[in-house]
What does this fold into?
Amino acid sequence: MANNQGPQGNYDPAGSTQMFRAFVDDAPQTRQAAPAASSGPRIGLIAGIVAAVVIVAAVAWLALS
It folds into this structure.
């Protein structure tokens, strides 16, 4: 006759799922909403792209002249 009362070999996936759900439900909500992105980095990115286009256009104009 088998001894089924010990912890070895008695894996209960439903039990671990229930424990995980309880952990998620009881976890404090520490995430904060992301603040609105400032336009500072975007302005720098746009200025860099415009400068790169101007430089490429100037190099192309000089190469074709």
User: Anything to note?
Assistant: The mean pLDDT is 75. Residues 22 and 28 are 12 Å apart (CA to CA).
